[in-house]
Amino acid sequence: MSTVEIGAKDVKALRERTGAGMMDCKKALTEAGGDIGKAIEILRVKQGKKIQDLGERAATEGTVQAYVHAGSKVGVLIEVDCNTDFVAKNDDFIAFSREVAMQIAATPTVKYVSREDVPADLRDSEARIYEQEAADKPENVRERVVSGKLDSWFETIVLLEQEMHNPKFEGKTVQQLRDELTATTGENVVIRRFARFAVGQ
């Protein structure tokens, strides 16, 4: 099964079952020929205890947190879900949700939770611009240049790929913090949605 045939839906399903990162899930699915069971095994072998098969357990509990920046010009509402009410009330879970809300408040470019949420037409038009910019490069490097620029663009608009601004997180991304929380709670931690409000925007 080629990478082309591995759809965003399959990647998302594997992520929700394991809490692993998007690129890791895509690689595992490619290696497993699209077989979710095999992909989970591959992830567990590569990432050990961090990965658990959370099965079809839906993330139906969670928290809604709000953050309003000093001066009351920017505010954020975020919904972060998990599997049980017990974890939803956990201090680490709530602290994570608040930290991510602060990250969104500080980052006006963030529009989507994950790459899968970015509309295909928007991604394609961005790729076309980078293809035109790379037109003068040798053919064998063009694809790498376009891919690299797309990755950089995703990092500005996708929440999970953001490096946390707070220095206490030592440059970890939102995805890495989410993975750590998934590992420590043993639950499926899902940033479901967010809304950023700024006066005059």
Give the arrangement of secondary structure elements:
Blueprint: H1 8-18, H2 22-31, H3 36-47, E1 61-68, E2 74-82, H4 85-88, H5 91-105, H6 120-133, H7 139-157, H8 174-185, E3 190-198
Antiparallel strand pairs: 1-2, 2-3
Helix pairs in contact: 1-2, 1-3, 2-3, 5-8, 6-7
- Quote the CATH topology of the largest domain: Tetrahydropterin Synthase, Chain A
Largest sheet: 3 strands, antiparallel
Distance N terminus to C terminus?
45 Å
What is the molecular shape?
A: globular
Radius of gyration: 18 Å
**What is the number of beta strands?**
3
The percent of residues in helical segments reads 40-55%
Give, in order, the helices and strands: HHHEEHHHHHE
In spatial order, strands of the major sheet run: 1-2-3
* Total separate domains: 3
Looking at the overall shape, the CATH architecture of the largest domain is 2-Layer Sandwich
Give the low-confidence spans. none
Strand content: 5-15%
Number of helices: 8
CATH superfamily of the largest domain: Elongation factor Ts, dimerisation domain
Mean pLDDT across residues? 85
Please identify the top-level CATH class of the largest domain. Answer: Alpha Beta
Broad structural category: alpha+beta
